[in-house]
Specification:
The protein has 219 residues and is α+β, with helices and mostly antiparallel strands. It has six helices and eleven strands. The strands form four sheets. A four-stranded antiparallel β-sheet has the order 2-3-4-5.
Length: 219
């Protein structure tokens, strides 16, 4: 699934909220330091959901007793699609220019973000072709799912060549559909022809309940 900011005013809303709140936040640094200290040297202020696509807040902490402030953007209510823009560090004294902040907001909001079917943020480099018509011919996975369940020669079950289903990872490292493995005679991997160890095969819920599969899996 691809997520992309569609509202043309989302970027402008995030920028205007920054302009409206930044100076107020920096008016009294001593009072701000007291607030941060009360919150165990790290806190958030001015948290607001600006529309259905973006939420913003300021992240404040003390770095060697110097105040450090970041403007935090979060898209689509997803904690993993988040961006921290450094705004102010007391030791340096300068506040980031408005042009720099606007540019950072635009860059973050203008990207396309992909979500794995497990719900985690996917990585475009871990995409693969599937037999569906465009524009849905590419699927993207998070690194965990890709490496554990999908890292095969052609990213499909080696028996039926389909990419969706419930998987078993054999002790030799090859990954098949559970029902395809259940239909394979004997305990030999149909890809590498090596004998498999049923105690080291990894199954993914839900389990197949056919007699042949239960016999192979030792269940």
């Amino acid at each position: 699934m691809a997520l992309r900011v569609k509202n043309p005013y989302t970027t402008e809303l995030a920028y205007r909220w920054y302009i409206a709140t930044c100076q107020e936040l920096l008016e009294d640094l001593d009072k701000l330091r007291e607030t941060i200290e009360r919150e165990d040297h790290c806190t958030s202020l001015y948290e607001k959901r600006l529309n259905e696509e973006i939420s913003v807040r300021y992240h404040l902490c003390l770095d060697n007793d110097d105040i450090e402030i970041e403007y935090v953007l979060k898209l689509f209510g997803r904690s993993e699609i988040k961006h921290y823009i450094p705004i102010f560090h007391e030791a340096i004294g300068d506040v980031k220019s408005e042009e720099t902040v606007r540019s950072a907001i635009e860059h973050f909001c203008n990207q396309t973000y992909y979500v794995c079917k497990c719900g985690e943020l996917a990585k475009p480099r871990l995409g693969f072709l599937i037999p569906n018509p465009p524009p849905d011919c590419i699927e993207y996975r998070c690194e965990t799912c890709y490496l554990y369940w999908f890292k095969r020669t052609d990213d499909r079950c080696a028996v039926c060549l389909e990419d969706e289903g419930v998987w078993v990872k054999l002790s030799c490292g090859h990954i098949l559909h559970q029902h395809c493995w259940g239909d394979t005679p004997g305990m030999t991997c149909p890809v590498c022809r090596n004998m498999t160890d049923s105690k080291k095969n990894v199954y993914h819920y839900p389990f197949i309940t056919s007699p042949d599969f239960r016999k192979k899996s030792g269940r």
